[in-house]
Design a protein that fits this description.
By secondary structure, the chain is of the alpha/beta class. It has 2 domains: 3-62 and 313-432, Alpha-Beta Complex (Aspartate Aminotransferase, domain 1), CATH 3.90.1150; 63-309, Aspartate Aminotransferase, domain 2. It is built from 14 helices and 17 strands. The chain has helices at 3-12, 15-23, 51-54, 63-75, 87-100, 113-128, 145-148, 175-185, 208-219, 274-279, 296-309, 314-333, 377-387, 412-432; strands at 30-34, 37-40, 45-48, 104-110, 133-136, 167-170, 189-192, 195-196, 202-203, 222-226, 251-254, 266-271, 339-344, 349-353, 390-391, 393-394, 401-404. It has a 7-stranded mixed beta sheet, with helices on both faces. Strands 1-2-3-15 form a 4-stranded mixed beta sheet. A hairpin with a 5-residue loop joins strand 8 and strand 9 (202-203). The protein is globular and about 65 Å long.
Length: 433
């Protein structure tokens, strides 16, 4: 990749982001990737602890998927099955419905998480003949207008207000507020994430999902679970709701790692009878669609991804690695004066940091006055870890929380190195702040 190609991003794609990356020292130029590592144009290796925000559960360029991709292209099937039966979508839908459980029957395929959320909202409205949506404060469901109408307050949302009508916010983890909203508003759907990653790794209390499901059934409201980031093995089960009995949603939203990090692929996995209720007639069966949704190549990658995740021992190993990483983090960082809180769910973690209060570690001092008022310690740790060749990121709504999201294939050595480097950098900040 040429130097001009990287510079073209800053001119023709997102100039403000390119400038921000340069100012914050994060404008690395990556040219190759494999497994848990990224290689820069200078030959330096960086450990990827962001994983494409959960899109790379199998790591970068997983060999089995690349081999399947080459084989698929050599076979030469149609990629778009327009107005005809799509066998690749059929096989993937069958596999996903079986993996999600006996309550599920059909799937709708699209290209991203936001698209999948939009599809879930429309299907819920069409199937119930209702219009209201209840969602939780602090959420992040995407940036299209429907998903944005369920976004947490802040810069993602405010420039586009007023958004869609009949969207009602309740507190996260509040069954009483949910019961009240369902009774008073009779909404089409209750939409939530089992872990609110962008709000600093807020986890639903055990039993909440099962209770929410019972409340939704009582009021004729569909339970929509957004597992765009928590699905596909991230929490130690194939889907996060499977940690709890009687917690299956009516509509399961998937994307990111569903395509193995190789192809864009989103889906909703739909409870029995719901698709027929929404789109069961010849004039309605195609009123929600996406031209490239369910294309053969993306679905082939989805099938290979499921095969890898369902291989004997894979999820058990990932769950065990998550427990080991959580233990390492608590042991090394739990009593550190700069650490407020540590939360893990499988190989998904959040480490919330306290501010140092030192003027050197402020946005003003760093020459980024536009960010004043936001926590600075997390960004400083992100910068310091990058110097140690660890690519990390903060939570979108909570810049004080460092998200911990390595590929599920991460080794014990990678985990030890990460925690050791993080502890050393926090010690450095503490000693100098």
């Amino acid at each position: 990749m040429t130097d001009s190609s990287f510079r073209a991003f800053g001119k023709h794609v997102n100039p403000a982001l390119a400038q921000f990356l340069s100012l914050s020292g994060r404008d690395q130029r990556f040219v190759r990737a494999q497994g848990c590592d990224l290689e820069s144009d200078e030959g330096e290796l960086y450990a990827d602890w962001v994983s494409g925000f959960g899109s790379l559960n199998l790591g970068h360029n997983p060999p089995a998927l690349l081999e399947a991709l080459k084989s698929h292209l050599d076979e030469g099937p149609p990629n778009l099955y327009v107005e005809s039966l799509n066998p690749f979508a059929g096989r993937l839908a069958e596999r996903l419905a079986r993996a999600a459980g006996p309550a599920f029957e059909t799937c709708y395929f699209c290209n991203s998480g936001s698209e999948a959320v939009e599809a879930a909202l429309k299907l819920a409205m069409a199937a119930t003949r209702r219009r209201g949506i209840v969602y939780c404060e602090g959420a992040y469901h995407g940036t299209t207008l429907g998903s944005l109408s369920m976004m947490a307050r802040g810069e993602y949302r405010e420039p586009f207000e007023p958004l869609l009508a009949h969207f009602h916010e309740i507190p996260f983890n509040d069954l009483g507020a949910l019961a009240d909203a369902l009774e008073r508003r009779q909404p089409a759907a209750f939409v939530l994430e089992p872990v609110q990653i962008e709000s600093g790794l807020r986890v639903l209390e055990r039993g909440f999902l099962a209770a929410a499901r019972a409340l939704c059934r009582k009021h004729g409201t569909l339970l929509v679970l957004d597992e765009v980031q928590t699905g596909m093995g991230r929490t130690g089960r194939l889907f996060c709701f499977q940690h709890e009995e009687q917690a299956a949603p009516d509509i399961l939203v998937l994307a990111k790692s569903l395509g193995g990090g190789v192809m864009p692929l989103g889906a909703i996995v739909i409870g029995a009878g719901l698709f027929k209720s929404a789109y069961g007639g010849p004039l309605t069966c195609e009123i929600h669609n996406a031209t490239f949704g369910g294309n053969a190549l993306a679905c082939r990658m989805g099938l290979e991804t499921l095969a890898a995740l369902e291989a004997p021992g894979f999820l058990e190993d990932a769950a065990r690695r998550g427990e080991e990483l959580a233990h390492l983090a608590h042991a090394a960082l739990g009593s550190h004066p700069l650490v407020e809180r540590i939360v893990f769910r499988g190989l998904l973690g959040g480490i919330t940091l306290r501010e140092t209060g030192h003027p050197w570690f402020s946005w003003d001092h760093l020459g980024m006055a536009a960010l004043c008022g936001r926590p600075a310690s997390g960004a400083l740790v992100m910068h310091r870890m990058l110097r140690r060749k660890f690519l990390v990121q903060l939570c979108g709504h909570d810049w004080s929380t460092l998200r911990v999201e390595p590929p599920l294939i991460v080794s014990a050595e990678h985990c030890r190195n990460f925690v050791s480097a993080l502890a050393e950098e926090l010690d450095w900040i503490g000693a100098n702040g």
